[in-house]
Amino acid sequence: MWTATHFPSSMRSLNPTTRLKAIEIANQLLTQGELDKQHLIAFSIEEARRWARCERVDQTQWVTGARQYI
């Protein structure tokens, strides 16, 4: 599990709000265990950026969308 002070280095460039959302998404996907960490991180960053642009997706779409990376 990642936190606001312990997160993947690829999330370092995100602004703090977007980074927190990426961490939230990544932790949820991590508990489901469907993706390897590399794809999980990339997907969570992509979704957090989408969320930040006000194209919010609900949690079920994260899971469905994540399956394309498997």
Secondary structure layout:
Layout: H1 16-32, H2 37-52, H3 59-66
Question: What do you see in this structure?
Answer:
This is DUF2188 domain-containing protein. The protein contains three helices and no strands. By secondary structure, the protein is mainly alpha-helical. Helix 1 crosses helix 2 (37-52).
Order of helices and strands: HHH
Tally of helical runs: 3
Shape: globular
Main sheet record = none
The level of helicity is: 55-70%
Q: How large, in whole angstroms, is the Cα Rg?
A: 11 Å
Kindly report how far apart the N and C termini lie: 20 Å
**What is the number of beta strands?**
0
Beta percentage is: under 5%
Mean pLDDT: 84
Number of domains: 1
- In the predicted model, the low-confidence regions spanning at least 5 consecutive residues are none
Given helix and strand content, the structural type is: mainly alpha
What's the quaternary structure here? Answer: single chain
Organism: Spirosoma profusum
Protein name: DUF2188 domain-containing protein
Question: Can you give keywords for this protein?
Answer:
70 residues, mainly alpha, DUF2188 domain-containing protein
Summed up, what is this model?
By secondary structure, this protein is mainly alpha-helical.
